[in-house]
Design goal:
Elements (H helix, E strand, L loop, with lengths): L2 H37 L5 H12 L2 H11 L3 H26 L1 H20 L11 H22 L6 H11 L10 H29 L1 H8 L52 E6 L6 E4 H5 L3 E9 L10 E10 H7 L13 E6 L4 E5 H4 L6 E6 L2 E2 L9 E3 L13 E7 L22 E6 L9 E10 L5 E8 L4 E3 L1 E2 L9 E9 L2 E11 L21 E7 L1
Helix pairs in contact: 1-4, 1-6, 1-8, 2-4, 2-5, 4-5, 5-6, 6-8
Length: about 550
Amino acid sequence: MTTVSITRNALTRGALAALSGLLAGFASLAVAELVSAAVRPEASPVTAVGGAAIDRTPAGVKDWAIRNFGEDDKLVLQLGIVVTLALFALGVGLLALRHRRAGSAAVLFFGVVGTAAAVGRPDSTGLVDGLPSLLGAVVGAVLLYVLIGRLTRPHRTTGGEREQEIEQADEPEHEAGWDRRGFVIAATAAAAASTGAGVVGRALNGRSSQNAVASREAVTLPKPASPAQPIPAGAQLRVRGVSPFTTPNDSFYRVDTALVVPKVDADSWRLRVHGKGVRRDLELTYQDLLQRPLIEREITLCCVSNEVGGPYIGHARWIGARLADLLKEAGVKPPSRGGEADQIIARSVDGMTLGTPVEDVMDGRDAMLAVGMNGEPLPFVNGFPVRMLVPGLYGYVSACKWIEDIELTTFDGYDAYWVKRDWAREAPIKTQSRIDTPKPFGRPEAGTVMVAGVAWAQHRGIEKVEIRVDDGPWRPAQLAEQGTVDTWRQWSYPWKATPGGHTLTVRATDRTGELQTEERTKTVPDGASGWHSVVVTVD
């Protein structure tokens, strides 16, 4: 055999070894997907490892991801995990070509990592959550061992075949020293079986959510005992480019840590109320909640990750049960009236915990356990079957989606998820404003240009909005009608635009007289602050 033939043979075997690693990784994930259908979809390795990665990511990095990738941050993370797994699999395949057992052991090691991630998740149901990763890794390790075996030893031959093989060994195109036919058969069978397992697993996992979908479709929201006031006719400006007063459900922002949106069956959903200062533990079903006197309110929500001028704010008409009434039934008193607990820990079905001041929930504002949004049951992505809302507080301390547990405790006794990651314990929404039109770097024509946007200071209301052009004086904007103190408010300003580059800046004053601060701060630890500006060039 010539040197060229030897080199070509080595390169071919190396490429096939890398392919073997990919097939082993694919088989591991496919089998894990199939097994997770018997356990629960959240136990699959990609979801478990991705969730663990989110839990361990520093707050600043998470904030950077939201700022740069927006609501696609989870997709980017999942793609990153898949690419990392693919590179790992390629490397393991090449390792196995030289050290067969070590390569298989590396696959098993990754299975251990996936198992630890699944079992260590806040919503873990126990050791059983580790089965998908563990069994998938075992199958992948065995498959890699078998495939590499076909590349490291020749197939057995009869005497006549051996003479023919010896003759072919001198031919440049002959790949000697490994079982080509056996490898092709094993690799093809593994790929087909893995694909089948993955497809079946995905289908079964999809079927597990059908009950949840059916339960949502069967919901008819009752008429609220306390309906919302009609939105004032003048609340929505007729200015092109300004955000709609009511945000459509499919356009409402989403910021959470769930890689897989929980799909909870309303028929099996339960909510438990317990903890410090609770005189009587409560457990409610979804129907129990619907049968309570419901309130309907216009409430604007805002995420603490919203940068100055950012998009993570939206408005909807919500319907739900008043949370303060529920707590009173359980015997809870606010701290101002001698209550033992000063913090509510709301737990989601995915293990998320949010901490909310008891005083804020029971001070008369329309805090609720929401079941409806803009006239329909909550969408799954927005928390179906039930989510918590507290007007005037950032979402990370008030708006628990997919809620299933309310525990009364103290701020000194328990740190919720985000507090453990350097966010503030308490976070009232700051007075903010935003320019919606013209857009940054826009090129409006000279003449009257309508500058417009929104301002918000939930639970306080907006009193005044002002606009400044370049370094000129502040001018009052025209305010649309205010819905309630819990809603944002639109504003507009007819600007006599002159040719050239200009900087437009906005600031707001709430109804307590507090002026929006100019000081620019980041979102961590309790929300961004500063004035929003846009730069435009007038033609």
